[in-house]
Amino acid sequence: MTQEILIIGSGAIGLSLAVELKLRGASVTVKSRNFREAAVHAAAGMIAPQAEGIPSGPMLELCLRSRQMYPEWTRKLAEISGLAIEYWPCGILAPVVDGTTPDFAREPAREPVKSRVGIARSGLPAYWMDGDAVREYQPGLGTEVTGGWWFPEDGQVDNQMLARSLWVAAQTLGVNLQEGSAVESIERQDGQVVGVRTRDGIDRAYRYVLATGAWFEELLPVPVSPKKGQMLSVRVPQGEKSPLQRVLFGPGIYIVPRRNGQIIIGATSEDVGFTPGNTPSGMKGLLDRAIGMYPALENYPIEEFWWGFRPATPDELPILGASDWSNLTLATGHYRNGILLAPISAKLLADSILEGKTDPLLKQFSVRRFDRRVAQSNTIATPTNHYRSMSSNLTSPTASSIAFATPSALATAPENLLEIAGRQFQSRLMTGSGKYTDFDRMRQSIAASGCQIVTVAVRRVQTNAPGHEGLAEALDWSKQWMLPNTAGCKTAEEAIRVARLGREMAKLLGQEDNNFVKLEVIPDPHYLLPDPIGTLEAAGQLVKEGFAVLPYINADPMLARRLEDVGCATVMPLGSPIGSGQGIQTAANIRIIIESAKVPVVVDAGIGTPSEAAQAMEMGADAVLINSAIALAQNPPVMAKAMGMAVEAGRLAYLAGRIPVKERASASSPQTGTIASTVS
């Protein structure tokens, strides 16, 4: 029976796997949002496991096996596609530029040696050259170069030729390539993927592979984030022959000469999300380092600048293999080595998908390594804001950890802290400062709640509105973090102006580094629903001005994503209208936001009871903000205490993971080993 396999993603990994599966007889569809966005187009194409200095272990073994496959793999691709692939096992030179000569450099020049600094590996060809020898081998090196390592088995491939050949090979073999078909969500049920949703409907297959590179987290909460890389190229003037014949791989820079006279220079590694474009500082840094290593480059004309996004995991190792859904395979996180690892990733994953064979090496790159979050020191670790672990994956605590860890200790362990814009908080409850009958009640309630973030309406404080006279001075801001809010603003322009006032107010009250703002743009006086267009407009401007923006929004997943894209520090969807006490009426949409977001999600507005606060936290929200339900209660301090306990309980319940919902009863006691009843 032909297996129908749907691959999401058309980068080097997705297309390599599609070709491999098709060659083995599978029916394959590839859904591609934008083939040109794939990291393969922005790479330099180095095949460099030794020059990269990858430590001994599973990653090095994976890279070496893939490098060994490259000659035959590229030959086969060229044969299928009919397109040339410029694979060049040219070796790579790694200059030493720190001004010192390592101990191992005393070995005779160009003799194989074992590295004592972890670059070369025993049994792999690697040659040390001192300053004179390295300049003889590659003339024109800068004065700062004191020696270098030569790795003769490393090489390069023209990444653009490879990308075109992969696409055409897949097309030639009959892979159903669907360019411009963006997957919006993955439909899951009963432990399996049952389809993928696009704007045109739902597509179904027998098996699925998720290989969307840096965009992986948009579809599945797995810790893969974009690392931006900026690059440029220069060209040897026409009629001249470049004296640079070696790939140079130095500290913070690589220089890759092509046979056609192009020289590629790269690359930065920036944790800036999906911020596009080249920057002057990025280009200057690359050029300074490149010219320092090979001065002749300063006279070559610049040909092109570009950038791309690499998919990186916290440990910078790929994620390959099974997921929590029996028919979904993961293939991502290759970071700097996607092109290098394409052949071996395709082979190992095809073996697993079609033949059920799991190479022992593949197990080292399982996504489940990120589930091992049983903390030391008697605490349970929790997913970070970048990784919302599915509750079924959380490892159970050991008996000893339970014996000594109180619920409060578990919820406020270092790994469980709420982090917003680089600042950490133990409490996941935020409270307001309005609607109290007097300041004493407010202070008692805030203290009873255990919260650390208190929101203050800037306009009402600035204008001494009734009930707000002296409010800013009524709290001890050395113990509470102020969250100025733009309540009462009807337009983006008003909100931006009030946010600036709020930042100055926080400075006057001693919080010099407070750049937080709760953004509210509410033109509707009846239902007090936020304006999505005005909110997005104001958020974009405030982020540019250095604010950590916490926007109050309708529970709109697409708006949440847009706000996250412009750089907001959180998203704050409403549970129901402000002050209504209706509870969480938008649960379905909030769940989508929680599953998709890479920033903290704070449920704001509508919570009326502690059970509703716990519900929000059990859904996976990072925090809740509650004002009216506390301030207007018959006994605000007692209600504040209850809300604080409910938030902590809800968080612990989320970490523990609830049991599956079943249609039928299931006995809690075993049916075997019971005492039989007899009648004599």
Automatic annotation (TrEMBL):
In Pfam terms, one family for this protein is ThiG
Query: Which reactions does this protein catalyse?
Result: glycine + O2 + H2O = glyoxylate + H2O2 + NH4(+); [ThiS sulfur-carrier protein]-C-terminal-Gly-aminoethanethioate + 2-iminoacetate + 1-deoxy-D-xylulose 5-phosphate = [ThiS sulfur-carrier protein]-C-terminal Gly-Gly + 2-[(2R,5Z)-2-carboxy-4-methylthiazol-5(2H)-ylidene]ethyl phosphate + 2 H2O + H(+)
- Residues the record lists as binding 1-deoxy-D-xylulose 5-phosphate: G579, A605, G606, N627, S628
Q: Which residue intervals define the domain FAD dependent oxidoreductase in the entry?
A: 5-351
Q: Which GO terms describe its biological process?
A: thiamine diphosphate biosynthetic process
Q: Which GO terms describe its cellular component?
A: cytoplasm
Q: Which GO terms describe its molecular function?
A: flavin adenine dinucleotide binding; glycine oxidase activity; thiazole synthase activity
Record-annotated Thiazole synthase ThiG domain positions = 419-670
Active-site residues, Swiss-Prot/TrEMBL: K518
Mind telling me which InterPro entries this protein's record contains? Aldolase_TIM (IPR013785), FAD-dep_OxRdtase (IPR006076), FAD/NAD-bd_sf (IPR036188), Gly_oxidase_ThiO (IPR012727), Thiazole_synthase_ThiG (IPR033983), ThiG (IPR008867)
Per UniProt, the keywords (alphabetical) are: Cytoplasm, Oxidoreductase, Schiff base, Thiamine biosynthesis, Transferase
Please name the SUPFAM superfamilies in this protein's record. Answer: FAD-linked reductases, C-terminal domain, FAD/NAD(P)-binding domain, ThiG-like
Instruction: Indicate where this protein resides in the cell.
Output: Cytoplasm
Predominant location of this chain? cytoplasm
Pathway(s) the chain acts in: Cofactor biosynthesis; thiamine diphosphate biosynthesis
Q: Which family does it belong to?
A: Belongs to the ThiG family.
Oligomeric and partner information: Homotetramer. Forms heterodimers with either ThiH or ThiS.
Q: What does this protein do?
A: Catalyzes the rearrangement of 1-deoxy-D-xylulose 5-phosphate (DXP) to produce the thiazole phosphate moiety of thiamine. Sulfur is provided by the thiocarboxylate moiety of the carrier protein ThiS. In vitro, sulfur can be provided by H(2)S.
What is the designated name of this protein? Answer: Thiazole synthase
Q: Which gene encodes it?
A: thiO
